Amino acid sequence: MKAKKLLSLALVAVLSVGLVACGAKKDSGKSQGDDKTIVVGATANPHAEILNKVVKPLLEKDGYKLEVKVFNDYVLPNTALLDNSLDANYYQHVPYLEEFNSKNKTDLTYTVKVHLEPMGAYSKKITKIADLKDKAVIGVPNDPTNESRALQLLAKEGLIKVADKKLLTKNDITENKKNIVIKEIGAEQLPASLPDLDLAVINSNYAIEAKLNPTKDSIAIESSDSPYANIIAVKKENKDSEKIKALSKAVTSPEVKKFIEDTYKGAIVATF
């Protein structure tokens, strides 16, 4: 009986050591564990395309391996950055990052501004804004910063008037002579929703993914002096690491600027 008890204790000890070893192995696989591998989260277009086609070979020359994880929403890339699944992400602008930090009590930061994606208004039913009928239904992104951008664009086009404040929702519309109905929809769902709407204000990354050219297909577009340049976001404690410096240098290289100009032909504008 005593021998059986001792054998049981020995087995428990062995299993415990094995579990600890497995746990250590799992932790070592996180992005921060390899100084020569850079894991970046990005939305598909243009971010992942820029990273894979231009930034990856540039980093390889400097001895780094770039892994790009593609996301199709605007929340998970930041949560993945916070839990160290990513070294950086590339998909958002500064106002969105600031709003995320404020809402979630986090302190993510950024290193460089890379490009501007002008937000555009698209329609399958009309060819100019003036043709919008009374009680037209307009789709806008449902996150605070991009909804604000959309409403500001509609205000610039004279469709509505809005309150003088930084973040806007449809409740901040102060004048709406055409009785326009604002429908808040996930940014990634707007292109697919376009046939059911009279107008949709769509972020350029999702527009491009849906084969819409912001400069050719939109019937209204943000001005080029928009403050919404897309950035490389990182955790504050990793901002000055060697691999983040290498990433920031590569993504603001002349090669990336030329690729943006040649590939997107004004639909996306380099900001460096």
Describe what you observe in this structure:
With 272 residues, this protein is of the alpha/beta class. It has 2 domains: 32-117 and 228-270, Periplasmic binding protein-like II (D-Maltodextrin-Binding Protein, domain 2), CATH 3.40.190; 120-221, Periplasmic binding protein-like II (D-Maltodextrin-Binding Protein, domain 2, 3-Layer(aba) Sandwich), CATH 3.40.190.10. The chain contains 10 helices and 13 strands. The protein has helices at 2-28, 44-61, 76-82, 94-104, 144-156, 190-193, 204-209, 214-217, 242-251, 254-264, and strands spanning 37-43, 65-71, 88-93, 109-116, 120-122, 137-141, 161-162, 173-175, 181-185, 199-202, 220-221, 229-234, 269-270. A 6-stranded mixed β-sheet has the order 2-1-3-12-4-13, sandwiched between helices. Strands 9-6-10-5-11 form a 5-stranded mixed β-sheet. A two-stranded antiparallel sheet has the order 7-8. Helix 2 links the parallel strand 1 and strand 2 (65-71). Helix 2 (44-61) crosses helix 9. The longest helix is centred in the first third of the chain and has 27 residues, at 2-28.
Short synopsis of the structure:
The chain is α/β, with parallel strands linked by helices. It has 2 domains: 32-117 and 228-270, D-Maltodextrin-Binding Protein, domain 2, CATH 3.40.190; 120-221, Periplasmic binding protein-like II (D-Maltodextrin-Binding Protein, domain 2, 3-Layer(aba) Sandwich).
